[in-house]
Amino acid sequence: MRLIPTRAWAATLLFAAFAALPLIAAALDDAYLVVIATRILAYAIAALALDLILGYGGMVSFGHAAYLGIGAYSVAILSRAGITDLSLHILGAIAGAAIFAVITGAISLRTKGIYFIMITLAFAQMAYFFFVSLSAYGGDDGVTLSTRSTLFGQPVLEDDTALYYTAFAILLGLYLTAVAVTRSRFGRVLTGARENPVRMQAIGFSPFRYQLTAFVISGCMTSIAGVMLANQASFVSPAYMDWHRSGELVVMVVFGGIGNLLGAVAGATIALLLEEWLAVLTEHWPLLFGLILVLVVLYSRDGLTGFFRRRL
Amino acid sequence: MSLLDVRNLRKSYGALKVTDDLNLSVDEGELHAIIGPNGAGKSTLIAQLSGQAGSDGGSVRFDGTDMMGMPMHKRVRAGMSRSFQITSILPGFTALENVAVAAQAGQGSSFRFLAPVADEAALNDAALAALARVGIDDRAFVKAGSLSHGEKRQLELAIALATRPRLLLLDEPLAGTSGAEADRLVEVMRSLKSELTLVLIEHDMDAVFSLADRISVLVYGRIIATGSPDQIRSDPKVRAAYLGEETEDA
Known about the structure:
The complex is a heterodimer.
Chain A: H1 3-28, H2 31-54, H3 65-80, H4 86-108, H5 113-132, E1 143-144, H6 160-183, H7 185-195, H8 197-202, H9 207-233, E2 235-236, H10 243-256, H11 262-281, H12 285-299, H13 303-311
Antiparallel strand pairs in A: 1-2
Helix pairs in contact in A: 1-2, 1-6, 2-6, 2-9, 2-10, 2-11, 3-4, 3-5, 3-9, 4-9, 6-7, 6-9, 7-9, 10-11, 10-13, 11-12
Chain B: E1 2-13, E2 16-27, E3 31-35, H1 42-50, E4 57-62, E5 65-66, H2 72-78, E6 80-82, H3 95-106, H4 121-134, H5 149-162, E7 167-171, H6 179-192, E8 197-201, H7 205-211, E9 214-219, E10 222-227, H8 229-234, H9 236-243
Parallel strand pairs in B: 3-8, 3-9, 6-7, 7-8
Antiparallel strand pairs in B: 1-2, 1-4, 4-5, 9-10
Helix pairs in contact in B: 3-4, 3-5, 4-5
């Protein structure tokens, strides 16, 4: 009960900081900051999407990078076909992600625990190798995008700050939607199925339908992150679907705190900032990052949000 | 007329026949107790009736409808609910949420994604009423995992009631309760007799003989006798197989 006002307060702070960031970057005359921050926002979208099924549904997907790739490739493929509008790129990404999620989710959800983790990983690897062999789009090397998505026919997103605020608006909208979903009838059934699936069946619910729906929603949300990543980098390659990347998404969620949505956003933010800063200090930065992750997980089972909650 | 009609129901675990050509008929409105020694197959029977466990053969008809092959959640929606011998709750949910989600299953679609469920008065009212009925409405906002064992047993019954069943299968509702909690549960069951049909599995013989309209005795997967409490008490087969001398004064 107490967590909820705390979370709303913390979310306001975090999103206010994101909103103000381009101003700070302008004051510091550091344009690169906006570029990094756009990448952070995109990963925050993906981590948020993953937390929805991992934290609330108990589904540890180790293949969510596939949806980043589907989103990124929908930008490349649609752009080449002459369709340049961002809203259509997002629609295309959602359609592709939905198809992939329905098929792989329906199969993966027949398994539990470690088998679910492995089967989602296997499907993501299949998607990865599919795009590796897609020579029309550069195969392994990927393809550079000559322009970013357009907005209402205008090339406004060529401006880094405009792209940043677009990503910010999407993240904010998806965050508020995800919070609503977790508090809805659907969210209650999804959480109940994580807590005790047999109990849910014994009151008249088939957990599978709700879990699959959540899995598809999560995949679709993640594909939007892929659309934003492709625009930020102006580059698309199978590397987005690499299994390392799926692992990083899980790390972001665990690092930030499982099952409260804001933790995923914070986790993505801190993890990527640490990556930037530690990489300046030493080329062995993953070692330091690993150490920090171990400490956070050891000292707070709720990740970064756990520290925050205890202090308040 | 019989609400639940079980014919030649069978189930084996390997060579062990847990349910062996079992026949059982439960009339609408009665409280039908099933007693039997440990290992007689009582919980397996409840699992088969509720759809949690499959059956090797036979038929289960509920209100004339064939239930065989129907998954558990559909049987519940058809009006046949169960409680668990080993408490099965949602520990991270409050007591109120545990019952409200059961009420939710029977009230409209749960594919609603944006409106906050905690604000649905119809669900909360139904949940509070069920909690009050079993006597733990003062614990509504406590996490179910933090309730005492006895309170969890009461919650278990409240959850089953919130699904608004026509037939309620109760698997040892008194297990592990004592004193006031047990008395309360017995009184709740007594009051339920006028509202719905009950199948009760219970080891507490005082409760069984005071509540039941009819009793069936299950031994090694077969019903060896069915009758009124008086008939069962005096049935020589039953006394030989199960009750022993202690029922002389029951």
